[in-house]
């Protein structure tokens, strides 16, 4: 996990041309944060895999629905390894999960905008009822983000991302967690054990994994 990483003079040097170009396309106020996040991911994985961060090569596993490697879950292609990874980033905070089994993570800032229209498209009837029962706008926003991060984490773990119908995933937001989620087809009928990642405000994150007994160790990196 990195919170509020400061720009580092060598951030760009460990990234590929494609990664630097992707950051350059972002609004000016987001570029340094994006560069720092991506460079931090490389530095952490470089330590784990004992290679210089600039030598890492990333790829994607085949999508479980169509077998297309263009949009499946990410992995480290070089050096050879058996790890599963999941990466999420919002302004000022990034989360990297490394595991020996499929995982998915999503992090959001508590100030992320949402609307009743978005809730109507992304949430199940019971999830919308839970939002409506919240006493304040802040509580409703947090309930929405609980649903959203759980959905995205489970769908990333399943390898299909949010290209599917989000309203087909019930997240049980009234339950603090962990909860068991099921991703819709084309994901396999695997249960995903999903719960909160303990982050400081104003961030909220959920982690989804294929085994309920795995031990989670949280390391803070950077500012």
UniProtKB/TrEMBL annotation:
It holds the Pfam family ACPS. Keywords: Transferase. GO terms for cellular component: cytosol. InterPro entries: 4-PPantetheinyl_Trfase_dom, 4-PPantetheinyl_Trfase_dom_sf, P-Pant_transferase_sf. Signal peptide: none annotated. GO terms for biological process: lysine biosynthetic process via aminoadipic acid. Residues 102-194 form the 4'-phosphopantetheinyl transferase domain. It comes from the Bacteria. GO terms for molecular function: holo-[acyl-carrier-protein] synthase activity; magnesium ion binding. Belongs to the P-Pant transferase superfamily. Gsp/Sfp/HetI/AcpT family. This is 4'-phosphopantetheinyl transferase domain-containing protein. The lineage of its organism: Bacteria, Bacillati, Actinomycetota, Actinomycetes, Kitasatosporales.
């Amino acid at each position: 996990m990195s919170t509020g990483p400061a720009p580092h003079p060598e951030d760009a040097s460990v990234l590929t041309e494609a990664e630097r170009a992707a950051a350059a396309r972002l609004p000016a106020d987001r570029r340094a944060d994006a560069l720092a996040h991506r460079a931090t991911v490389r530095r952490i994985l470089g330590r784990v895999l004992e290679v210089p961060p600039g030598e890492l090569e990333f790829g994607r596993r085949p999508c479980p629905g169509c077998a297309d490697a263009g949009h499946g879950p990410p992995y480290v292609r070089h050096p050879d390894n058996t790890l599963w990874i999941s990466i999420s980033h919002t302004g000022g905070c990034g989360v990297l999960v490394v595991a020996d089994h499929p995982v998915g993570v999503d992090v959001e800032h508590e100030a992320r905008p949402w609307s009743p229209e978005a809730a109507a498209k992304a949430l199940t009837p019971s999830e919308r009822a839970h939002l409506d029962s919240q006493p304040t706008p802040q509580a409703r926003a947090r309930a929405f983000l609980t649903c959203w991060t759980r959905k995205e984490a489970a769908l990333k773990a399943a390898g299909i991302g949010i290209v599917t119908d989000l309203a087909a995933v019930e997240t049980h937001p009234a339950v603090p967690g962990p909860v068991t989620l099921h991703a819709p087809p084309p994901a396999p009928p695997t249960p995903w054990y999903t719960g909160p990642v303990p982050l400081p405000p104003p961030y909220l994150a959920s982690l989804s994994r294929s085994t309920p007994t795995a031990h989670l160790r949280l390391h803070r990196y950077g500012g």
